[in-house]
Amino acid sequence: MAEITRARPFHVRFLEYMPLDGQDLWRKEDVVTGAEVMAAIGRAGRLVPVTSDDPSEVARRWRFEDGAGEIGFINPVSEPFCSTCSRVRLTSDGMIKNCLLGNDEWSVKRLMRAGGSDEDVADLIRQAVAMKGEHHGINKPGFEPMIRNMSRVGG
């Protein structure tokens, strides 16, 4: 997959295995880290960093020195980026999630069906953003994986 970025201006992303199954099957021991993948790709040619001015960029971006495209590594397990995460999700069933890997949710659907105004919705979103944690907790004792699987979240 990475090799195709040499000849073509494609952007390929490698994401670490995350606890997104909603069935408690994920195990940290099964994670192949972004560093391991990068080391394997690096054996095929010299990688040079691609810089970004976007403070919320989640991918560590690289390209082959002789490449036309780029390779990105998204490493939320081995290199959490929670402190700079600007993501908030609206699920297909009307819930706001302030962390992809968290179980906290706020119901926009219930608010709107109760006659909530645009300002009420904006306030709910602000509340969810204000409650974002500093860490998703994957690497901490007592971490609780997502209850819902990724297809229910809409990511």
What report would you give on this structure?
There is one protein chain. A hairpin with an 8-residue loop joins β6 and β7. This protein folds into two domains: 4-74, no CATH class; 85-153, no CATH class. By secondary structure, the chain is of the alpha+beta class. The chain has a four-stranded mixed β-sheet with strand order 1-4-3-2, with helices on one face. It has five helices and seven strands; from the N terminus they run αβαββββββααα. 23% of the residues lie in helices and 16% in strands.
Strand content: 15-25%
The helix/strand class is alpha+beta
How much helical structure, as a percent, in the residues? Answer: 10-25%
Low-confidence stretches: none
Compile the SSE list and pairings.
Blueprint: H1 4-7, E1 11-15, H2 34-42, E2 47-49, E3 60-64, E4 70-74, E5 89-90, E6 95-97, E7 106-107, H3 108-113, H4 118-130, H5 150-153
Parallel strand pairs: 1-4
Antiparallel strand pairs: 2-3, 3-4, 5-6, 6-7
